[in-house]
Design brief:
Methane Monooxygenase Hydroxylase, Chain G, domain 1; coiled coil; Sec10_N; 28 helices; Sec10_HB; about 700 residues; flat; mainly alpha; Sec10-like
């Protein structure tokens, strides 16, 4: 059995039957080939049989042991269940005892409360009687005029003395003076004794504040809370807080620092710190700030509007910033309204007529800026046309004389100044900022519109519009020689200036009027300005006549009849004529100038008009000459160069016109036999036959019978 246990329980791994048999056979002599022994099946069988018997014996023993343990477990389970039942019974008994004890405690507590109420009912009258007795004792001392009690003679008991005086004073005030008791109590009801003690307490509070004794200040303030002079105590505290607080030049920063310091301290002294702090702030605004603001503004109010407005804006902004800092403190329920009223009280006399001062200053300042500019140019402004947009359109339609009468020489001056514009816009920007800050919210859109109207009057009308009118008057006639087209410079500068004007409109005016009916008025006013300027720019289209006139002068001066009918047909060395070179150079400069002067669709519109007129000029110019074969080739080269110049316009119609003109010039050199074929080509097929015939007639060989026969 021992050997069986050894085999059965060896190792910590789970039991495996095959391994168990192997180990048993390995341990049995003759059970294997170990040590060279021969295999002995009988002995192995015998060993197996014996081992099986041992296993059976071991199984029986284990089974008996398991049964014994099961019986023992059942017995212990029954004992445990019995013990649990006994504990449950004991717990129930204890719970019942606890309930009884709780009821008893409640009963006793009720009795104690009742007894306490009875004792309080007895003790309260007794305490009142004792207090009344003490007051009567002190009352007698006041009647005798000799204060002997320690509470009146000991300065350290001023709190107790104040309480007694306060009570006696209230009692004395309730008694009628015509009664005997009231007459006897008159010394207590009169201000003398009461106010003497009150003044003594305030003096004690003042001394404690100077010594920096917060606890003593709190104690005295608590006593004075029941006296009429409590507000005087607060006034003394506020007054002493400000001593030495405003020594620097920046009164606003000093005020913020003072309020920050008092805010930390006032809660430790007074029972109502928010009221005391609010009273301090009110005192600062009504005394210090109001006096400072008045000194700063009254100095320049009538003598220097610019400095007055700057100071008003700066002072109001700094006051509002101080108010924002004070919003962090506890000043009661509606501190926003409280601070707003304080600010309004300081500035109301200045804000009532602010916009009138603003408009008056802006008007005089803008007029001065413009006049100073014109004076620097030694220019005396002329009156300009006052007609509206419809009048301008009518003048444009009829192409009447320009409003300034005959053409004037501006000597290349555009009468537009970037510096003037920047100064006007800067002044208006500052006016918008002041308007935003100083105007009442209900008046803000209206005031902003008035400032905008000033900008329109002086920038758009008095400066830009005047420059356009002057530029229109300065446009030379189409037959002028060496005409300088300064109107395009005016257009260029006016366009740049208006972009700056539009930017200020969007950046500074729109936020002030975006949610008001004034928005539509401002947009309409701006639209009218734009339309009026565009009409005048359209009137400046007469500049194109001058350009065409200049081209005519160049062609007349440079183009020779022999250019297209050279004496020696075999000795032509040039690729295109000198007139063509100069005209193309002039046109390219004007195209570049137009692109620099205008933007948007205006560029294409003006270039299309110029391109069409340029084409008509070249077309009519070519009709004036007769062309030999080599002259026709030179004309084709000239037109090809004109066509290259036309590409700079970047207008499809203009390029198409010059393509057609180039095709027409081919009729000047094509062989007579091919004339009909060329005329029926893609570019010439849709042209009127008279136009084709007019070009063919320009050939020197047109009258030959052969050419006339072929063309007919």
């Amino acid at each position: 059995v021992t050997l069986c246990k050894e085999f059965f329980f060896c190792g910590q791994e789970p039991f495996v039957a095959d391994e168990y048999i192997e180990r048993l056979a390995w341990r049995t002599p003759g059970g294997g080939s170990r040590g060279g022994e021969a295999f002995d099946p009988k002995r192995l069988l015998e060993e197996f049989v014996n081992h099986i018997q041992e296993l059976q014996v071991m199984d029986e023993r284990i089974q008996r042991k398991v049964e014994k343990l099961e019986q023992q477990c059942q017995k212990e389970a029954k004992e445990f269940a019995k013990k649990v039942q006994e504990l449950q019974k004991s717990n129930q008994v204890a719970f019942q005892h606890f309930q009884e004890l709780d009821e008893h405690i409640s009963y006793v507590a009720t009795k104690v409360c009742h007894l306490g109420d009875q004792l309080e009912g007895v003790n309260t009258p007794r305490q009142r009687a004792v207090e009344a007795q003490k007051l009567m004792k002190y009352f007698n001392e006041f009647l005798d005029g000799e204060l002997k009690s320690d509470v009146f003679t000991n300065s350290e008991k001023i709190k107790e003395a104040a309480d007694i005086i306060q009570k006696l004073h209230l009692i004395a005030q309730e008694l009628p003076f015509d009664s005997l008791m009231g007459f006897c109590c008159y010394p207590l009801s009169s201000p003398g004794k009461y106010h003497d003690l009150e003044c003594q307490l305030i003096q004690e509070f003042t001394s404690a504040q100077r010594r920096g004794e917060i606890s003593r200040m709190r104690e005295v303030a608590a006593v004075l809370l029941h006296f009429k002079g409590y507000s005087h105590c607060v006034d003394v505290y506020i007054k002493q807080c400000q001593e030495g607080a405003f020594l620097r030049n920046d009164v606003f920063e000093d005020a913020a620092i003072l309020c920050q310091r008092v805010n930390k301290q006032v809660g430790e002294i007074f029972s109502n710190p928010e009221t005391v702090l609010a009273k301090l702030i009110q005192n600062i605004f009504e005394v210090k700030l109001q006096s400072y603001v008045k000194d700063q503004l009254e100095e320049h109010r009538k003598s220097d509007a610019e400095q007055y407005l700057k100071n008003l804006y700066d002072l109001y902004t700094r006051t509002a910033n101080l108010s924002s800092k004070l919003m962090e403190f506890n000043l009661g329920t509606d501190k926003q309204t409280f601070l707003s009223k304080l600010i309004k009280a300081i500035f109301i006399s200045y804000l009532e007529n602010y916009i009138e001062v603003e408009i008056g200053y802006l008007k005089s300042r803008s007029a001065m800026i413009l006049q100073r500019y014109y004076d620097s140019k030694n220019h005396q402004k002329r009156s300009i046309g006052t007609g509206g947009i419809q009048d301008l359109k009518e003048r444009l339609r009829q192409r009447t004389n320009l409003p300034l009468g005959p053409s004037i020489d501006t000597h290349g001056e555009t009468f537009l100044s970037q510096e003037v514009v920047v100064n006007l816009l800067q002044e208006t920007k500052q006016a918008f900022e002041r308007c935003h800050r100083l105007s009442d919210p209900s008046d803000l859109p209206k005031n902003a519109f008035r400032i905008f109207s000033m900008l329109v009057e002086f920038l758009c009308t008095e400066h830009i519009d005047y420059a356009l009118e002057t530029g229109l008057a300065g446009i030379p006639s189409s037959d002028s020689k060496n005409a300088n087209l300064y109107f395009l410079d005016v257009v260029h500068q006016a366009n740049t200036i208006f972009h700056l004007f539009d930017k200020q409109f969007n950046d500074h005016l729109m936020p002030l009027i975006s949610s008001s009916p004034k928005l539509s008025e401002c947009l309409q006013k701006k639209k009218d300005i734009i339309e009026q300027m565009e009409v005048k720019l359209d009137m400046g289209i007469d500049t194109l006549n001058c350009m065409i006139g200049q081209m005519k002068h160049i062609l007349a001066a440079e183009q020779k009849k022999t250019d297209f009918k050279p004496e020696d047909e075999n000795n032509v060395l040039i690729q295109y004529t000198n007139a063509c070179v100069k005209v193309c150079g002039y046109v390219r400069k004007q195209v570049e100038k137009i692109r620099n002067s205008m933007d948007g669709k205006n560029v294409d519109t003006v270039l299309m008009e110029l391109g069409v007129r340029f084409h008509r000029l070249i077309y009519e110019h070519l009709q004036q000459y007769s062309y030999s074969c080599m002259g026709g080739m030179l004309a084709i080269c000239d037109v090809a160069e004109y066509r290259k110049c036309a590409k700079d316009f970047k207008i499809a119609l203009v390029l198409q016109l010059f393509d057609t003109l180039h095709a027409l010039c081919n009729l000047l050199v094509v062989a007579p036999d091919n004339l009909k074929q060329v005329c029926s080509g893609e570019q010439l097929a849709n042209l009127d036959k008279n136009i084709l015939h007019s070009f063919v007639q320009l050939r020197v060989d047109y009258r030959s019978a052969r050419l006339a026969r072929h063309f007919s």
